[in-house]
Amino acid sequence: MKASGAAGGTWDLVVVGGGPAGVAGAVVGAELGLRVALVDLSEQIGGQFYRQPAAALGARRPQALHHDWRTFAELRERLTASGVAHLARHHVWAVERHDDTRWTVHATTGPDGDGALPVRVRARAVLLATGAYERQLPFPGWTLPGVVGAGGAQAMLKAGLVLPGKRVVVAGSGPLLLAVASSLATAGADVPAVIEASGYLGYARRPGALAANPHKLTEAAVHGAALLRRRVALRTRSAVTAVHGAERVEAVTVSRLDRAWRPVPGTEREIGCDALAVGHGLVPAIDLATTLGCATRPTPDGSLALVLDRRQETSVRGLWAAGEPGGVGGAQLACMEGELAAMAIAARLGRNPGPGGRVRQLRSRRTRLRAFAEAMAAAHAPGPGWPGWLADDTEVCRCEEVPAGRIREAVEEYGARDARTVKLLTRAGMGWCQGRMCGAAVACLAGGGEPPLERRPLGAPVPLGTLARLAPPDEPDDHDDHDAQAPVKEG
């Protein structure tokens, strides 16, 4: 069921995020008898992994750009039959907790969250399936037109059926690079090289995780074979350390790296291209959860993820999470965690008899996939020497145009020792993205090595007019009020 505008009344469960974890959680929750609302910022479900082209583009075989499309197609069919209210193009900027079973999700509407209608969605439980965003490590020239995120390049292809360029170098670190390069090459791009900053031998240090997940090796072999057929070179222990061009990308410099990711002098090599797709892993999107005080844990690749119990509940009772917020692990793991969370929520709300064979099976598979995810994060963790790529005039915070030199000055001259102090001294991280792009880089340059705290007052930009129209606050409805569906118009 698709709904437009806001939804009043109180739902049993509100799911935030329409990717694999969110859709799985919403579907299973509804099938267990819960009244479920699925709130997502996109027009279509699928999240970043299952992005789809707009109908107007007339794509004949959108599934050709996807891995494991059958799983998504089945979830979509179940969602259509489930009665879940899909609130599309709703940008959630805050989640408010009244007590363990009374929650309010605040959102704005419209393609960019600039709609005039503030929305309140009330629920007895909330499942956060907010995914992740790309981690970018800056280097000279990374702001030139033609430089796109690796995930962004894949999104352009899946959603817009366009390539970022004709000749595209793919660089960074992580298994996403192989999938992106394979997709771009299959779609007709000339991919001269995939530049991986880590090596793959790191996986060998955790043979148990590999042995328990042989399908992951198969996936890597499929991507590797596709690149081999198209004669795409794979260079490990290397990085793009500079981009060249007058108006846009014309070439990149690739350097060999030592184990700390420091460039090895004399190894620089230039590769001509008109686009660069670059990304250094994914960072869990946990803003909404940390604002509510949820506990976090450091991950092996230097980011923060939520602490979750065996039922997928956060440290805040009544708030669950599934998928990447608990640690980046991929779509298959996300679907399992969404299902597990929905079953736990249903049990909490008295709609499910509790753990059974299916729960034990899901937990066992989750444990195996989580072990692989931890091995993957460790293998591709950024090395401490990457700041050696930066010149003093290299822009680190693009929103506030703060170069590396000013951050180094804040550290060396003014004594800053953490990202927050650097932010106060330089404005790095105070722009539109609120440090989501530059936070990891600033924290590393600050010298502490600790990941920045992902605690922000708002989970998404929200117009002041929307905040003004929210006043005065009202009391959440009684739990038995399930009938109202009218938009909540404020002011």
Describe the structure.
It is a single chain. The chain is an alpha/beta fold. Helix content is 30%, strand content 21%. The strands form six sheets. Strands 1, 2, 3, 4, 5, 6, 7 and 20 form an eight-stranded mixed β-sheet that branches. It has a five-stranded parallel β-sheet with strand order 9-16-10-11-12. It has a three-stranded antiparallel β-sheet with strand order 13-14-15, with no helix packed on it. Helix 8 crosses helix 9. The radius of gyration is 23 Å and the shape is globular.
Strand segment tally: 22
Low-confidence stretches are 1-6, 477-491
Tell me, briefly, the overall form. globular
Biggest beta-sheet profile: 8 strands, mixed
Q: Indicate the mean pLDDT.
A: 88
Radius of gyration: 23 Å
Share of helical residues: 25-40%
Number of helices: 13
Instruction: Assign the structural class, choosing from mainly alpha, mainly beta, alpha/beta, alpha+beta, or little secondary structure.
Output: alpha/beta
Termini separation comes to 29 Å
Task: State which percent range the strand residues make up.
Answer: 15-25%
Features of the shown structure:
alpha/beta, 13 helices, 491 residues, 5-stranded parallel sheet, 22 strands, disordered N terminus
Write the layout of secondary structure elements.
Elements: E1 2-3, E2 10-16, H1 20-31, E3 36-39, H2 69-82, E4 85-87, E5 90-99, E6 102-109, E7 119-128, E8 132-134, E9 147-149, H3 150-160, E10 168-173, H4 176-186, E11 193-196, H5 207-212, H6 214-229, E12 233-235, E13 238-244, E14 251-256, E15 269-272, E16 275-280, E17 282-284, H7 287-291, E18 296-298, E19 304-306, E20 319-321, H8 331-348, H9 357-379, E21 395-397, E22 402-403, H10 404-412, H11 419-426, H12 439-445, H13 464-470
Parallel strand pairs: 1-4, 2-3, 2-7, 3-4, 7-20, 9-16, 10-11, 10-16, 11-12
Antiparallel strand pairs: 5-6, 6-7, 8-17, 13-14, 14-15, 18-19, 21-22
